[in-house]
Design brief:
By secondary structure, the protein is mostly helical. It contains 18 helices and no strands. The model has no long low-confidence stretch (mean pLDDT about 80).
């Protein structure tokens, strides 16, 4: 049964969508402006870039498990999200302020990245529960497609805007825009009035036992276990690449801030095409095979990045092609995989399973970033990029050896 278009009559989803659309645009600005601040303003080295990227993702490794168990005992998850938005706005605003006072140091960037990451963990794990309360099950794929489309649109406009702002104002001051978008997101979240289900009493169960429930549930669910393993593998190697990509493009390939911004923006056109195409691919192939296809289409084009050589125009075109094709692939992958995982987890376990999943999946991102920075410093940027792009293809193995590829549609949620 076709359900596209059903969400236009759901005000709470539209508010959630609007707030996230504004916020992810600002995130795309910071995605380029923060590393450019390190490279252009503070003359960072490869190892510094690895630490900076790792700082942003380390909270998923050290905080996700406990945050998930804590959030499962909270009935005010929307308020947690609002507080996280306000905190992130203040932290990002501290960077241009410090630059204005000539006090900015690389250590501040590390600290801001880490603390923003901590608040992002709280926001995202609360978001998974809020999402399922405002989106009907039959519209989950449509909702993920709409959210992914706006993320892709932000990825088109954000880096280009960041490159322009960096050229006009300087890299630190471009971060002020992202700070403002978090305030807008908080305002939209305040207007959502969807009732949150009551929290079940824990019966005095200890924290470690509640944490263990997340691990046991994932370990016992073959579908979810494969999605965690596949994503963790891809993300580890992808973050080896992303940690040094701006440094590689700037110093080794000789591209300027504006060109790098265009590469990120133009590449995201592929995501803008891929997000609405993802449900179509799932209907034609089945949602499981669509995920497996995305696990190839996402990392394979990244091999073009270390292969880039020749004239400045050819190098520029090669990076554009890599970003364009990889961004299309990641939408085929993410939209369909996120739809599977959103439908699988019982509400009572969402915080714990989300926390465990992030610990296993997102927790590998800082390790990948540190590995990328360390290898980039020792064996060079280009060889490290070859290892990263090739290694990400190993994520496909998890899906080929699992029941995921046999799924035709979104599975029923297990409320046991």
């Amino acid at each position: 049964m076709r359900t596209e278009g059903t969400l236009w009559g759901h005000p709470n989803f539209l508010r959630l969508w609007a707030g996230q659309s504004v916020s992810v645009f600002g995130d795309q600005v910071s995605l380029l402006a923060l590393p450019l601040t390190a490279v252009l303003t503070l003359d960072a080295a490869a190892v510094d870039m690895g630490i900076l990227t790792a700082s942003a993702w380390a909270p998923h490794l050290v905080l996700s498990l406990f945050a998930g168990a804590w959030i499962d005992r909270r009935s005010d998850r929307r308020r947690i999200m609002i507080a996280a938005d306000l905190g992130r706005a203040l932290l990002l605003a501290s960077v241009p302020l410090a630059a204005l006072l000539d006090l900015l140091r690389i250590e501040q960037l590390f600290a801001v990245a880490f603390l923003v990451g901590c608040l992002t963990v709280l926001f995202d794990q609360s978001y998974t529960s809020l999402f399922i309360t405002v989106v009907p099950r039959e519209a989950i794929v449509e909702a993920n497609s709409k959210l992914s489309t706006t993320r892709a649109g932000a990825a088109v406009a954000g880096p280009g805007a960041a490159g322009l702002l960096v050229r006009l104002l300087g890299a630190p001051f471009a971060l002020a825009l992202d700070a403002g978008t978090f305030l807008v997101s908080a305002l939209f979240l305040r207007k959502i009035d969807a009732p949150e289900p009551k929290v079940e009493p824990d019966g005095g169960v200890r924290l470690w036992r509640r944490l263990g429930e997340g691990f046991r549930w994932i370990g016992g669910n073959a579908l979810y276990r494969a999605t965690v393993g596949g994503s963790a593998t891809i993300n580890f190697f992808n973050f080896m690449l992303s940690a040094i990509l701006v440094l590689y493009a700037s110093r080794e390939l000789g591209l300027g801030a504006g060109q790098i911004g265009i590469v990120f923006s133009a590449g995201a056109v592929g995501a803008l095409i891929g997000a609405p195409a993802a449900p179509w691919v799932a209907r034609r192939l089945g949602i499981g095979r669509a995920v497996a296809l995305g696990a190839v289409l996402f990392p394979a084009p990244l091999l073009l990045i270390p292969a880039a050589s020749g004239s400045e125009r050819l190098v520029f075109a090669t990076l554009l092609a890599a970003e364009l094709l990889a961004s299309f692939g990641v939408m085929i992958y993410d939209v369909n995989q996120n739809s599977i995982t959103a439908a699988l987890v019982p509400y009572r376990l969402r915080g714990r399973v989300s926390g465990t999943s992030r610990f296993l999946n997102y927790g590998l991102r800082p390790l990948g970033a540190l590995a990328g920075g360390a290898l980039g410093e020792t064996i060079g940027l280009r060889p490290t990029l070859w290892i990263a792009a090739g290694g990400a293809l190993l994520g496909l193995v998890w899906y080929v050896l699992s029941p995921v590829v046999s799924l035709r549609e979104v599975p029923l949620v297990e409320e046991a």
